[in-house]
Amino acid sequence: MIPQAKIKPDDTRERIMDVADALFRRLGFAKTAVADIAGELGMSPANVYRFFPSKNAIVEAICRRCLSEVDERAWAIARSRGPAAARIERLVLEILAYHKDNLLTDKRVNDIVLVAIEDSWDAIQAHKDVIRNVTELILRDGIEAGEFERVDPTETSRLLMRSLVAFMHPVLISQCLAGEENVEAEARTMVRFVLRAITPRT
Are residue 102 and residue 168 in the same domain, yes or no? Predict the structure, then answer.
């Protein structure tokens, strides 16, 4: 008899997250119980609780995974070539597109986002730190190239994030989408408007 490969705990955690995410999107967060998740996986609820202490903990893990995907895309943009202003615009549009495509398809998904925001402060703060660091790196490149004035890149990155939060925060994005605005065009206009404040006058 060929021995079965042992399933790694991390693989089981990923399977639980995948199934939970699908059920949350299909049934809604409130209507999905841990027993439903366990049933889809062919395991007992007690086994799910071995990996996650609560349903909210599963949401938090899904939140961390989603934000890590955004972080990877952000670093890829920061390390790419091209004018700094164009990279900052790409960064904002990439974050906007990710939230639109993955987190804001309907009210049930938006409910998951609200739970994640409420319960995942550490993950969200770490994500905000990554985006600020990415923005600061791009700003430093722009300053070095003479594209931007010699501003304080750390403080300026914070100001940029505050100015552009409507296009980077999933709840605020959902409010923009509810108004059926051309959010991408507005984001481009806002990025260019804000960056004019640090662009040398010729």
Answer: yes
Q: Characterize 115-136 residue by residue with b for buried, 16 or more Cβ atoms within 10 angstroms of its Cβ, and e for exposed.
A: bbbebbeebbeebbebbebbbb
Q: What is the pLDDT of residues 53-90, one digit of tens each?
A: 999 899 888 888 888 989 999 999 999 999 999 999 99
Buried (b) or exposed (e) across 164-176, using 16+ Cβ within 10 A? beebbbbeebbeb
For the entire predicted model, the pTM comes to: 0.82
| In a shared domain, residues 87 and 47 | no
CA distances from 111 to 16, 37, 91, 116 (A): 19, 18, 25, 9
What CATH number is given to the structural domain containing 118? 1.10.357.10
- Residues (pLDDT < 50) of the chain are 1-5
Contact between 130 and 74 (Cβ < 8 Å): yes
Instruction: Looking at the structure, tell me whether residues 34 and 134 fall in a common domain.
Output: no
Q: Is residue 59 part of a domain?
A: no
